[in-house]
Design brief:
Helices cover 26% and strands 26% of the residues. By secondary structure, it is α/β, with parallel strands linked by helices.
């Protein structure tokens, strides 16, 4: 017996492979039971959902809020539940709630919230700061930016096992390598923390020892980091060319120029993933909120402060997929892989997610031909999302 059948005109199994036409995914007990050509009459019509496109469930490594809530404001279970429902409007199945720079050790509240969370949507936690460069704060409150300390490392490691839980959830920390003691950095990485460089003004020479230590990625490539110049590759040039580094990128047509999206895709290939960097406005009617006392307004799909500083994004991953195809000439199969298989690999969870095949959890993103989110299944359960 099966619980649900998804019949897709085009089924993208994952890995950038071309689609299978008129195939079905059979779901039982939250798992994918079978993937096969659809045979009419095999299942009762009430159990068959027909969709134009079915893809491996999207995974967002950087989402600050959605559905009218901001994780920094209320890092708790109601906020995580609300974010999970609202993020599905962009086709997202799983995510790392992202807690940005806040005073002192406020980030511990986010760690406790994720440790207590039992939602399968939540695959861990992303701490974006406060260990950043004061030269590259972006929207982060400058007064709260500071170097990583021994006390911070001890606190993070004391909470690490509770975050992991029974599902081996992950902790990702974005920091500025040039502001970080290499011995403290090594302790985090040796304990299994995923560390990305971001909000950093590091040179390639400064970034090199951090990569040797185990820094494995760059947060929102091209934004809030050192750029390529004639005699200095910076973080951007290093990420584009060093095969040890992954990177997330915000493909909304605002954060990164289309040509740069194309350059990054061509040079990085399956080291580049899509992130939303979504804020509380996404999946809601909200048009204004504040970060660290600074007002942020949604203007023509752009989240900005009064002085025009970008403040996250009003973006679903389905829109990022569409933008990569439209603006950067990326094939749909590859863009879908950037939203599912590559983030799964970054998290070390590609044995569970990022492909549609028997034996894996039934986490699926169903889209229209124009890539609107139609249905999202997380471990076989359909998530009724709000737009």
């Amino acid at each position: 017996m099966c619980d649900q059948v998804i019949r897709a005109n085009k089924l993208f199994a994952g890995g950038g492979e071309p689609p299978l036409f008129d195939h079905m995914v059979v779901i039982s007990d939250g798992m994918i039971q079978n993937v096969a050509p659809f045979v009419s009459g095999s299942f009762g019509g009430d159990r068959v959902l027909r969709v134009p496109v079915c893809a491996p469930g999207f995974i967002d490594l950087q989402i600050n809020g959605s559905g009218g809530v901001f994780f920094n404001d209320s890092p708790d279970q109601p906020t995580l539940a609300r974010m999970a429902i609202a993020a599905a409007a962009g086709g997202t199945c799983h995510f790392l709630p992202t807690f940005i720079t806040a005073p002192g050790t406020d980030y511990e509240r986010a760690m406790m919230a994720v440790a207590d969370c039992r939602l399968p949507h939540v695959l861990g936690l992303h701490l974006e700061g406060p260990f950043l460069s004061p030269e590259r704060p972006g929207i982060h409150p400058p007064a709260a930016i500071r170097p990583l300390s021994l006390a911070d490392v001890d606190l993070v490691l004391s909470r690490l096992e509770s975050i992991r839980g029974d599902d081996d959830r992950q902790l990702l920390i974005t920091l500025a390598p040039e502001e970080t003691n290499i011995i403290l950095l090594a302790r985090l990485i040796e304990a299994g923390v995923i560390v990305f460089a971001g909000h950093s003004n590091a040179t390639m020479a400064q970034l090199g020892p951090a990569i040797e230590c185990g820094v494995c990625g760059v947060t929102h490539l091209f934004n809030a980091c050192s750029q390529i110049s004639a005699r200095e590759p910076g973080i951007v040039g290093t990420a584009l060319t060093d095969k040890r580094l992954f990177a997330g990128i915000i493909a909304d047509g605002l954060h990164v120029a289309p040509t740069n999206l194309a350059i990054a895709t061509r040079l990085m290939g399956d080291r580049l993933c899509l992130v939303s960097d979504a804020m509380s406005t996404f999946g809601s009617n909200l048009t204004k909120f504040s970060i660290g006392g600074r007002d942020v307004t949604l203007v023509n799909q752009r989240l900005q402060t009064a002085d025009g500083t970008l403040a996250g994004a009003h973006l679903g991953l389905n829109e990022a997929v569409a933008a990569m195809c439209r603006l950067a000439g990326v094939a749909l199969a590859d863009a879908l892989h950037m939203a599912s298989g590559i983030p799964a690999r970054i998290l070390g969870m590609d044995d569970r997610y990022g492909r549609i095949e028997p034996g894996k959890p039934a986490s699926l993103t169903c889209l229209s031909d124009d890539l609107e989110s139609l249905a999202v299944f997380v471990h076989g359960e359909e998530i009724v999302h709000q737009k």
